[in-house]
Design brief:
The protein is elongated. A seven-stranded mixed sheet has the order 8-7-6-5-9-10-11, with helices on both faces. It has a four-stranded antiparallel sheet with strand order 2-3-1-4, covered by helices on one side. By secondary structure, the protein is an alpha/beta fold. Helix content is about 40%, strand content about 20%. α4 packs antiparallel against α5 and α5 runs antiparallel to α6.
């Protein structure tokens, strides 16, 4: 096994302590913020995880034979994963309702409220808002998460397809698809009448099960098996889709998500996924 260690700063003494703890036979620099420890016995997993947690480092165990080219599909959540904001909270801010909407968002992310119900409740508060507020949020507030473009460039170079699936809104996913060259997107559609939001969502809501269904729909279309799929998210609404993937990544996620994911990235950006996918190229 290889132990991948990442952080905004990875001190040499910490690497040496981890090497001693795990019995690593080598330490290899993967990038300025990522290191690979070659380990013959991965039994000290709990101890290594505890050390990394205490020292503000991300770590993950990766099979030595894994290659990034073994994967075929990356499925990503949008809000607070690919981008830094929760779009609906920022739209609500245009109405002076951000605290009320954010509270419902947080409860849904923690899994305390059914997502579809929480979305309907939040969207209903937006009734009467001018449609132009959506463009303002996109132009003025939407930012990509750190490392997003680096990750997507590596994914494209490896021939991996991308699906952005969101409990948010098509207004944003469609623009991000065009901007970033994403292969597939799925999200909810806000109803608009006479240039204003009606407070309703059109069609079936893309909830936790909807995300999982979209993952499997695209996976089957591409002729992939489950082990070739990577899923990344941050909230309880992402758990079902993450359970359908060969590798699941919790990105700066709620505790309930970190507990169930194969890997958690808390210290580094989205490009921290790259070393976890193994080495460049394809086996054989």
């Amino acid at each position: 096994m290889n132990l991948i260690v990442q952080g905004r700063d990875v001190p040499t003494p910490s690497l040496k302590q981890l090497a001693k703890l795990t019995g690593a036979t080598a330490i290899e620099a993967v990038s300025l913020t990522a290191f690979r420890l070659v380990v013959t016995d991965d039994s000290p997993r709990v101890e290594a995880a505890a050390f990394c947690e205490e020292n503000s480092l991300d770590c993950g165990w990766v099979p030595a034979g894994r290659h990034i080219g073994d994967f075929g599909l990356l499925v990503m959540d949008m809000d607070s994963t690919l981008i830094t904001i929760e779009c609906i909270d920022e739209i609500a801010d245009m109405q002076g309702l951000k605290p009320q909407v954010s509270a419902i968002t947080e409860a849904a992310m923690r899994g305390e409220i059914d997502f579809a119900e929480s979305l309907r409740r939040r969207v209903s508060l937006l009734a009467g808002l001018d449609q132009s507020a959506l463009q303002r949020v996109y132009d003025e507030r939407l930012q990509l998460s750190p490392g997003a473009e680096t990750l997507l460039a590596a994914i494209r170079a490896a021939g991996i397809r991308t699906l952005l699936v969101s409990g948010g809104f098509t207004f944003f996913t469609e623009r991000l698809q065009s901007r970033l060259g994403l292969d597939y997107t799925a999200a909810n559609t806000l109803e608009v009448a006479d240039g204003k939001l009606t407070g309703r969502v059109l069609g079936d809501i893309v909830d936790a099960q909807g995300k999982a269904d979209w993952l499997n729909r695209v996976r089957i279309e591409l002729g992939l098996d489950r082990g070739q799929v990577i899923a990344m998210g941050d909230g309880a609404n992402d758990l079902k889709m993450m359970a359908e993937a060969g590798i699941s990544i919790a990105y700066r996620a709620k505790p309930v998500v970190r507990a169930q994911a194969a890997y958690a990235l808390n210290q580094v950006g989205l490009d921290g996924l790259i070393p976890l996918l193994g080495e460049n190229g394809r086996k054989g």
